[in-house]
Amino acid sequence: MEKYVCDVCGWIYDPEKGDPKGGIAPGTAFEDLPADWACPVCGAEKEDFSKQ
Asked: Residue 40 half-sphere exposure, CB side, CA atoms within 13 Å?
């Protein structure tokens, strides 16, 4: 699974780790994140992420 980086703050979404603070389980692919998911650091939207 690919990692994605937030274009706003640089936080990296790693599918192997998920987003525990956001309720996203480890093993969740970026494409499977809910449409309203946001960067846990800066609040950027999913569309503000790029493949790393």
From this structure: 12
Length of the chain: 52
Helices (H) and strands (E) in the chain, counts: 0, 3
**CB count, 10 Å around CB of 6?**
21
Residue for token pair 């480890």: 26
Grouping H, G, I as helix, E, B as strand and the rest as coil, residue 13 is strand
Going by pLDDT thresholds of 50, 70 and 90, the confidence category of residue 1 is: confident
Tokens 């650091």 correspond to what residue? Answer: 41
11-33 pLDDT, tens digit each: 999 999 999 999 999 999 999 99
